[in-house]
Amino acid sequence: MTAALRLARRLALTALLLPGLALAHGHLKSAEPAPDSTSAAPKQLSLSFSEGIEASMSQVQLQRLDGQAGTAITTGKVISGRDERTLDVPLEAPLEPGRYQVKWRVLAKDGHKTQGDYRFTVQ
Ligand SMILES: [Cu+2]
């Protein structure tokens, strides 16, 4: 076995033994309103991640999925929530009943960027 192959095997084994390390990025763990939920109109969006997040370097976009589909909803600035893993997004006006999509792009405090999206319904 060549030295390079031995090193590659060792790195692969390390990645297997330390899945937490390999996957340690800012993943969405929960949100309010919750993904795929139906609820009364929220006053704000709250997104909780698996890691500390830089609020000032993160974006959350909200858009309508029905009615005037694709209409972007103007929100307040993304701010830190109850802890460093949570982002809050104040809403400027109550959301009308309908289906919404949240798209998020965040910078974790470890310097990694992640993104994703989810949907919820307002009654
Ligand atoms: Cu990371």
Automatic annotation (TrEMBL):
CopC domain: residues covered: 25-122
- Does the keyword section mention Transmembrane? no
Signal sequence, start to end: 1-24
Q: Which UniProt keywords apply?
A: Copper, Metal-binding, Periplasm, Signal
What are the TM regions of this chain, as residue ranges? Answer: none
The record's annotation in InterPro entries points to:
CopC-like, CopC/D, CopC_dom, Cu-Rt/internalin_Ig-like, Ig_E-set
Q: Which domain of life is it from?
A: Bacteria
Q: What is its main location?
A: periplasm
Protein's cellular compartments: Periplasm
Could you say which protein family the record assigns here?
Belongs to the CopC family.
- Give the protein's function: Involved in copper resistance.
What protein name is recorded for this chain? Copper resistance protein C
Q: Which organism is it from?
A: Pseudomonas benzopyrenica
